[in-house]
Amino acid sequence: MSSRKQLGQALFAALFLLVIGVGALVFYLADPSRLQRSSDEKTAVALAQAKEALIGWKLNDNNRPGVLPCPDVNDDGAAESLSGIECPSYLGRLPWKTLGLPELRDGSGEKLWYALSRNFRNDDSAEPVNTDTKGTITVYSQTTGTVMASAVTAVIFAPGPVQGNQDRSPANTMSCTVPAGTIFRNQCAANYLETASTTDNASATGPYITAQSTTFFNDKLLIVSAADVMIPVEKRAAREILNLLQLYRTNSGGGCNCYPWADTSNGASEASLRYGRVPLLSALPTEWSALGISIAPWLIDNQWWWVFFYTVSGDDTAAHSGGSLSLNGVSGKSVVLITTGTAGANRPAGSPGSWDTNWWSYYIDDPDNSDLGTWFITPTSTAHDRDRIYTVP
Predict the structure, then answer these.
(1) How many C-alpha atoms does 347 have within 13 Å on its Cβ side?
(2) pLDDT tens, position by position, for the chain (393 residues)?
(3) CA angle, corner 378, sides to 374 and 382, nearest 5?
(4) What order of strands is seen across the sheet that includes strand 137-141?
(5) Is the N-terminal amide bond of 285 cis, ω within 30° of 0?
(6) 116-152: buried (b, 16+ CB within 10 Å) or exposed (e) per residue?
């Protein structure tokens, strides 16, 4: 066979393979399921980034850790300032600049939206904000007959592409319900968020819904729970309170060398009480300030002393009698501090009428830890939102 003929066959084979390859690439790029998966993955990543930023936004703040920013109403990327003590709207775009994020977009190229529970707004009128604080938002799954989550703190929405008669023009104005007023069409929630099973995701305060995509509904959402936001803050509060207690003992000196007496319900020590709450407002036998100890205002303003269970051993009080505390059968503990996780449906409000095991059973999961005794166990639950026990040897 001539070299010219061999070359021609080789070129034909290469051309054939190229055509097949291009065809396969076109088919791959045009595959609707593959394109949808890629869009969904981009949406999921954007929602997760937004949630992580919201959780960490105020974690290390020395004023109000645990609160969240107002939604962005005018689409400039920044959280709106309060109007009096309220957010101008509790539904708007995610304030990505305020959260220190890039301009996050979903798989269709749209910016994310965000709904906030009023109880978690960034204002001192919302205080106390701690693990007793519940969100006000309900989210349904598929239909209004199925509650996906209640007492939700915030919801992040990926609006997806235009549906129906939605008009997202940045040039035209319209009368809008949320945010309220005559505003640009690309700032109105109804042009981005839809209704499923009679539940409108463009509502100012909810409820909201997640459902299968249809020709009339394509919203995707991610929930931010009270546990997501408050458990990291609870851990921070526990560390700071343990440091305060140990500083109290050190600074009380040879005359006492003790921890403060506990509190029942108002943040102030009661003489001879060894179990209850942490007396951050007023301590006995000696005041915090008299020992040169300053307490971070956020611990007091947000009443973190209310939601922690504190026990001090008799030997480590001003009386110096009564033995030590034990954990899992090992004695020698001076202090036990139990953090109680976020509020369940049955957690009571207000002060206890008397000190009994029933009161603390609403806060503490394990009966062995809520019986006002001196013997404790490691909490049995390993869930994220659970009791945690801390000890001082």
Answers:
(1) 14
(2) 555 544 445 444 444 444 444 444 444 445 557 777 888 999 999 999 999 999 999 999 998 999 999 999 999 999 999 999 999 999 999 999 999 999 999 999 999 999 999 999 999 999 999 999 999 999 999 999 999 999 999 999 999 999 999 999 998 899 999 999 999 999 999 999 999 999 999 999 999 999 999 999 999 999 999 999 999 999 999 999 999 999 999 999 878 999 999 998 889 999 999 999 999 999 999 999 999 999 999 999 999 999 999 999 999 999 999 999 999 999 999 999 999 999 987 787 666 655 555 788 889 999 999 999 999 999 999 999 999 999 998
(3) 150
(4) 143-152, 137-141, 208-210
(5) yes
(6) bbebbbbbeebebbbbbbbbbbbbbeeeeeeebbebb
Instruction: Assign 3-class secondary structure to 103-145.
Output: CCECCCCCECEEEECHHHECCHHHCCCCCCCCCCEEEEECEEE
Annotate 178-200 with b (16+ C-beta within 10 A) or e (fewer): bbeeebbbbbbbbbbbbbbeebb
Cα distances from 333 to residues 283, 298, 380, in angstroms, run 21, 28, 20
Cβ contact 185:167 at 8 Å:
yes
Q: Residue 316: which residues within 8 A CB-CB, separation 6 or more?
A: 249, 258, 259, 324, 334, 335
Using an 8 Å Cβ cutoff, are 135 and 154 in contact? yes
Here the tokens at position 156 are 């992040």
**DSSP label at 61?**
-
Which whole-number Å values give the CA distances from 38 to 27, 41, 49, in the listed order? 15, 5, 17
Query: Containing H/E element for 54?
Result: helix 32-56
Domain boundaries, the chain: 40-224, 229-392
Token code pair at residue 393: 């040897």
